[in-house]
Amino acid sequence: MSVLDPLVELVRGLFTSGKMMFEKPVTFQYPEQKREVRPRFRGRHVLKRYDNGLEKCIGCSLCAAACPADAIFVEASENTDEKRFSPGERYASTYEINMLRCIYCGYCEDACPTEAIVLGDNYELSFYDRRSAIYTKENLLESVPATAMLTPQKVDAGVFTRSVPEMEDPRD
Amino acid sequence: MLSDWTLWLEWFIKALVVTLALLTGFAYLTWYERRALARIQSRIGPNRAGPFGLLQPIADAVKLIFKEELTPGRADKFVFFWAPVITLVPSIIIAAVIPWGTAFNFFGRTVTLYVANLNVGVLYLMSIASIAVYGIVLAGWSSNNKYAMLGGLRSSAQMISYELSLGFSFATSIVLANSMSMLDIVDAQKGLWFVVVQPVGAVILWIATLAEVNRAPFDMPEAEQELTAGYHSEYSGMKFALFFMAEYQKMIVVSAILATTYFGGFLGPFVGQYPLLGPVYLFIKVVVLLGVMIWVRATWPRIRYDRLMSFGWKIMLPLSLAITFITATGILLAQELNNQMYFWAIPVVSTIIGLFTVVFVYRTLRRLPYERA
Known about the structure:
Low-confidence stretches of chain A: none
Helix content of chain B: 55-70%
Largest sheet of chain B: 2 strands, antiparallel
Number of strands of chain A: 5
Strand content of chain B: under 5%
Radius of gyration of chain B: 22 Å
Low-confidence stretches of chain B: none
Helix content of chain A: 10-25%
Structural class of chain B: mainly alpha
Strand content of chain A: 5-15%
Shape of chain B: globular
Number of helices of chain B: 13
Largest sheet of chain A: 3 strands, antiparallel
Distance between the termini of chain A: 52 Å
Order of helices and strands of chain A: HEHEEHEEH
Radius of gyration of chain A: 25 Å
Largest interface: A-B, 20 and 20 residues
Order of helices and strands of chain B: HHHEEHHHHHHHHHH
Mean pLDDT of chain B: 83
Oligomer: heterodimer
Shape of chain A: elongated
Strand order of the largest sheet of chain B: 1-2
């Protein structure tokens, strides 16, 4: 420490902040310019489908049970081979998430036995009233490439008897 | 002479121009500050409203006008209403004595580029600048809020402490110019800006004006962490906007004063031939000085209150006293002994004393905690 330090340090501070003026701003011009989310980002939920278009959700309500904010409501109904929504006995006839309650903890994702509910990368959730904050099954369900893959499907009897698929060890 | 209606009209137009320039200047100073601060903090700042965000001040003004105005239940309604006005008015009328040029020929009529050339211009500045503190104290007192009250009191204490060194550094330039008129002070700087003759005086004036307009690092009256927002905690809507306006206009005005008293005012190349260049030079100098103020705000942390006071009384006041004494002595010796060497001793000796002061500050900072009283 030298004698002129009170002065030197002040000037050094000014120099440091002045240098910053020539650095590129880190700002993203949001609505036009969007930032990629991280691979494990937890955004709005998505209800996944199998490759043939059947819903992965079997209406077991484990997500609703796991939800610490009590944001999820599931109502299950019986599947038939004439009108099949998902493999196994039951499917979710009502699936609602209240986005005002959801804390994006991802416990529903962990609880799901079929990996049906996944927290996606959509973070643009804003609504004008409380009613539109409740996302229904129509909003959450993944879209399908072809209309033939939409549920309910008419399938052969005795093919989709198992609700929970054979799964590999989880990755990522 | 006073019956000449064109003269009245000229005065009126010039006063209007100054007022409007300050009002727009305030609006664009907020924009300037936000953009500059943002750049220092690796951000962009307001850039949405209009090109480069230039319409942002207008959007802010519209917002403030339509905001709800609250008056605290047990506030002194009369004083509460008038305090912002008392703060704002001095910050506008103080600009009257700042010359922004000499005179130019307007269709055969000589129009002077200043509202008033008072022979006691600097005295006027000093007195008006200290009136502004009344508004702040009254705002703090009438809000019926202890934080606002503390903010107002801090502000007045700070202004009284720094007013002295402000006065002495003004006195230095008065001595150098041998006149109290702002125009004469600028004229005296034709050959040499006073900042060259008396650099320490310029620094003292700059620090004192920072304290005077409650800017960082001396923004104790508005210390958010300690006093919520200080004296304007209870103000909202347009009344708050008036305080905001007063603060930023004072920033502009003190920059103009600093430019006038130490940095040559409206002087610059070719200003003799084209007097209309004067306002341009003054504008450039003011913008640069304001930029430094913003830069300082982005850099230096707020000084502790007791340090602020002891810095004002124990360092700034003796230093400015010494500076004034040295300047006066140097000029007197140069005149009496007819030797310019004594005049050039002024910057040398004052710089040495200024550095000695820094050493003194260093010693007080280095004192061990148990040694502090």
